[in-house]
Write a structure and sequence with these properties.
The protein has 15 helices and 22 strands. It is an alpha/beta fold. Strand 2 and strand 3 form a beta hairpin. It binds NADP nicotinamide-adenine-dinucleotide phosphate. The site of NADP nicotinamide-adenine-dinucleotide phosphate has 26 residues, from helix 7.
């Protein structure tokens, strides 16, 4: 059994006590163990402050972008190995594992290309300058500078590679050193990804450190210039936000948390848009066994069409083969941990008090290709609740599994948007239809409830990748329950790691400092 290590203060640290087991979720066999016992977190912070930060800040945006390109290449070169580890430690099929692994290299590659356009000036101009007095003798310009602190990244179990890479891309490009902490249950994949990057000698020493296991007293050490970027459950987020040092120092905290995302079918939608709706809902329920923060949890359908939609979805979900991804006939793997299965069984039972199961069983199943009684298998389960407001639990309880609930609405954009809003803030809402007036009304009604609005129509059906993909070009994050955070989205993602400064002075001087020399 492998013992995972942490990469801290320039060396690989192996604990000798306090281990948590990591298992293959298809067989329940132990595959590794992890512990951060013995890590000196004071030294971790010191190392990032004295080595990683200065080294990164000495590089230009273009040079930092080149680091990302090399990281992307290194991960791509080890793609097969990472996919195999993902199967072993997280129970993913090749397609689901690729969503994580390729998502990581793709995000790094996109930020590398985009970052190279930011140039060589240490201060990054943001938006247009503005005249502040009667002449250009007093001019203002917002600029961004790297924060002289440490970024601590705490990630969820479901995206061990992408979670590391998407946060690292923004922090490193901004010029901030980072400490990444994967969820312990799936840390085997993240540990290997960091090991690949470190072994390739790509990033300056101290720019990336890795903690496998608990964060010890690391978070207590964060101060005014540091950043905590957290992805995980809303409950954990709430406890982390409340830490006295983070509040006292106004430490930047970004949270990506739970989300009860909705897919909405506009009335009378037919043809390619309707087909896309069905394909997307089935994929977004079952990819990574439904363990995606962007997965569809609620499906809103005009009341008169709900019976027909239920029949089609139930038929498609019945085709999903749940089992050990080592078996080539399997299209959906197990849940990642025993805890996940336990939460899913309890959560589905809670939903079933306000909704009824119309596809699947809501129970553990034996997996194809797996020994009877072993493995955390749960087949796709569709529920239906006809009293949308009465089914309060459907808008409150995130069952992090291939589970979603069908809900009827009256066909108006206002009704659909209000129901989406009952969850108190989501990462993504998807809507399908071709009636532009209806879609415009929906977009304006639903906008404040969601971080991303994915519109499936005849025009997008050929290209749309599915609502679950968090793309680096556009925002990932959502209001309220979804954490209120903002990641990715080009410059949006960089903002977390940079200080915005209002630069004021004579225009030529301000332009020169902001790298805008020669600007009109
Ligand atoms: P979790 O239990 O909240 O754990 C998330 C991370 O927090 C893990 O690395 C965990 O480490 C760490 N953690 C827990 N308690 C901590 C503490 N007191 N101090 C420091 N770190 C602590 O969530 P999860 O089960 O891994 O992930 C599932 C949840 O994440 C779902 O609710 C999902 O919606 C959400 N999620 C959101 C996004 C997004 O982008 N919005 C993406 C993916 C997942 P250990 O593993 O060592 O306990």
């Amino acid at each position: 059994m492998k013992t995972l290590r942490s990469y801290v203060y320039g060396k690989w640290h192996q604990a000798d006590t306090g281990f948590a087991p990591l298992v293959n979720p298809a067989s329940e066999e132990p595959v590794a163990r992890a512990s951060s016992a013995g890590v000196d977190f004071g030294r971790v912070m010191e190392h990032a402050h004295t080595q990683g930060g200065p080294a990164l800040r000495a590089l230009s945006f273009v040079e930092r972008a080149n680091l990302l390109k090399e990281m992307s290449r290194a991960l791509r070169e080890h793609r097969d190995e990472l996919l195999e580890l993902s199967r072993l430690n997280t129970g993913t099929t090749k397609a689901s594992g690729a969503f994580d692994v390729d998502g990581a290299s793709g995000t790094l590659a996109w930020y590398a290309g985009w970052g190279r356009r930011l140039g060589d000036n240490p201060l990054l101009a943001e938006g247009d300058g503005v005249q502040l007095a009667r002449s250009e003798g007093f001019w203002g310009q917002h600029v961004l500078v790297p924060r002289r602190g440490v970024a601590v990244h705490v990630n969820a179990f479901n995206f061990p590679v992408w979670g590391f890479a998407e946060k690292a891309a923004c922090a490193l490009l901004a010029g901030m050193p980072l400490v990444t902490k994967p969820a312990t249950a799936t840390a085997m994949v993240a540990e290997r990804a960091v090991e690949i990057v470190v072994a390739a000698g790509i990033v300056p020493e101290g720019a990336i450190q890795l903690v496998c296991g608990s964060t010890g007293d690391l978070l207590d050490r964060l101060g005014p210039l540091d950043v905590l970027a957290f992805t995980g459950s809303a409950d954990t987020a709430a406890t982390l936000r409340d830490r006295p040092n983070l509040r006292r120092h106004n430490t930047r905290v970004n949270v990506e948390a739970d989300s009860l995302n909705a897919a909405v079918l506009a009335p009378g939608t037919a043809g390619a848009a309707r087909d896309l709706f069905v394909t997307d809902v089935v994929r977004e329920m079952t990819q990574k066994s439904g363990q995606k923060c962007t997965a569809v949890r609620r499906i809103l359908v005009p009341a008169g069409e709900i019976g027909a939609v239920q029949e089609v979805l139930a038929g498609r979900l019945a085709e999903v083969v749940t089992g050990d991804p080592a078996d080539e006939t399997v299209t959906m793997g197990p849940l990642a941990t025993a805890q996940q299965l336990e939460d899913t069984l309890a959560g589905t039972a809670e939903l079933a008090r306000s909704a009824h199961v119309v596809a699947g069983t809501g129970q553990r199943v034996d997996g194809v290709g797996a020994p009877a009684g072993l493995g955390y298998f749960f087949a796709p389960t569709l529920l239906r609740a006809d009293d949308v407001r009465g089914a309060e639990v459907v808008h409150r309880r995130e069952v992090f599994a291939p589970v979603a609930t069908l809900l009827p609405y009256d066909g108006t954009a206002a009704d659909a948007a209000a129901f989406v809003g009952l969850a108190g803030g989501t990462l993504v809402t998807s809507v399908y239809g071709d009636d532009e007036d209806w879609l415009a009304a929906f977009a304006s009604d639903v906008g404040s409830f969601t971080g991303r609005l994915y519109v499936g129509s005849e025009g997008s059906a050929g290209d749309a990748p599915g609502s679950g993909i968090a793309m680096p070009q556009t925002l990932h994050g959502g209001p309220g329950r979804a954490g209120g955070g903002e990641e990715l989205g080009g410059s949006v993602g960089l903002g977390l790691y940079m200080q915005r400064v209002a630069l004021q002075g004579s225009r030529p001087l301000v332009d020169r400092l902001a790298g805008r020399a020669g600007a009109e």
